[in-house]
Amino acid sequence: MKTNLMILLVAIFSMACFAGNAQSNKKTKILFVLTSHNKLGNTGKPTGFWIEEFATPYYYFTDKGYEVVVATPNGGQAPIDPKSNEPSFQTSSTKRYFNDAVTQKVLASTKKLSTIKPDDFVAVFYPGGHGPMWDLANDKNSIRLIQQFYESKKPVAFVCHGPAALVNVKDKKGNYLVNGKKITSFCNTEEDAVQLSKIVPFPLESKLKERGAIYVKGADWSSFAIEDGNLITGQNPQSSELVAEKLLGQIKGN
């Protein structure tokens, strides 16, 4: 009888330890939202998301033990803007990505936005590239997710053309979410410099101002990011790590 009782106690203790370890090992989840759009207007050229703006924040968080889940409007393969693959735009993070079969598989099998539950995540991050100007700016599931994250006081972060996903988001009162808030994004002069001002569906800086945003920026091609409450925005590819740092600060502060 004593032997059986001892076995039972050991079993209960082992199960409790296993449950405790499973709970402690459960990773905190961050949602990354990428574009599914791969056509650069009527140019006949491809576009998509900018690989550096994904890779740097992705490894920034995964290296710290966070789980990053990637979603797109259509699910499946997220299109990388081939322009961002050019040698002059490579960074240590992009080089790491192109040698990382596991993360490449993540981008080949992204979740569909319509299946995402905001309660599963502590924050959401939108990398840029020109693709979001066409799909995420108008995607109802993306708009709903941003509203839910923002209203739940969870940090919502964007970089470069990522803020295009904000232009049609409204708050509970029906006002544009960016109205009266300090926002940055890829600016008009940077768009002019890459000669795409007449190709994109709208100038992002101008559209944000039109929606009532207090638009601010740093020098062209410099690292610049700003926070207004739980809304975080970065200006350009050079700002991706700074946005990730600010996002992590808010995650830890919540």
UniProtKB/TrEMBL annotation:
GO terms for molecular function: glyoxalase III activity; peptidase activity. Residues 1-19 form the signal peptide. Keywords: Hydrolase, Lyase, Protease, Signal, Stress response. InterPro entries: Class_I_gatase-like (IPR029062), DJ-1/PfpI (IPR002818), Prot/Nucl_acid_deglycase (IPR050325). Pfam families: DJ-1_PfpI (PF01965). CDD domains: GATase1_Hsp31_like. GO terms for cellular component: cytoplasm. Residues 53-248 form the DJ-1/PfpI domain. It comes from the Bacteria. GO terms for biological process: methylglyoxal catabolic process to D-lactate via S-lactoyl-glutathione; proteolysis. SUPFAM superfamilies: Class I glutamine amidotransferase-like (SSF52317). Belongs to the peptidase C56 family. HSP31-like subfamily. This is Putative intracellular protease/amidase. It comes from Lacibacter cauensis.
